[in-house]
Sequence to fold (295 residues):
Amino acid sequence: SGGALSVKGNVTNAGNISLCSSGTLGDDLKVGGNYTNTGAGTFTGNNRAIWFVNFTSPIVPITQIVTSATALTIPFVVTSGGTAGTTVQLASDVIISSSPTGANVISFGASGADVIDINGRNLTIGDLTSIGTIAGTGTFKGSTTSNLSILGTTASGSIGTLSFTTGFENLGTFTMNRQPSVVGCVLGTPLTVNTSLALTNGHVDLGINNLTLASGASIGGTPGSASFVIADDTGGQLTRTLSTSGTYTYPIGDNSGTTEYTPATFTFTGGTYGGTVGVRVIDAVHPTNVGTTDH
Fold:
């Protein structure tokens, strides 16, 4: 304890790094270069943060690589890239576990230039005991093989806004398992899911952005009233790229007034496929529907 440990270069851990066991505020590790856990290295966060800091002067953009022989668990991550930004690139799977306190599980720098590059790895934000949120305006750099899981308790609410770096708005798998029947995250940019969208607890609110399922991407988890894609009439669409005939279900609903799960199913037979079909919900009776109850 006694304040943050700042290292302006690389940190290689071949033994044991344990941040303040009392979790004292400010007893964090601030790294100006790469962070590496070797095969023998262990990191114990004790509810404290690793800061990825751009110490360059004059300031220029930097990349800081995170490597670990096994999945690395960090309670909190802070990026402090200044006006030029820092890109925290994962070379290993990382779990940013947060804590039951409700603090920010990820805090991006104020400039909006900071990036977490998932880099084809598995990034898990939160765990089943956490209620932390994402703060700041940084972005996640995805790819078709990058996997992102958003976890939390049954009382965790929304983790906040997920924004992806322009040109890298892709994930392999995207998992939502947070508080049931409430918004789990809001998309701040468009996103394409290439392998699987897993909906277990919590809603993915599209805001004004489209969520696209690439050709062949599946929907897993347990979509229903506890977890679906909010695609309101004034916002984005849940879109599928079609390459073959078949029956496709869109686990959508709206958040206009009462939050309601209203999935749509389409069956396509014959023909040539090479486009997309997108859907969203208009919370109103269709003008040509004269039914008084079923609409």
The mean pLDDT is 92. The longest strand covers residues 191-201. The chain is about 0% helix and 45% strand. The CA atoms of residues 93 and 202 lie 23 Å apart.
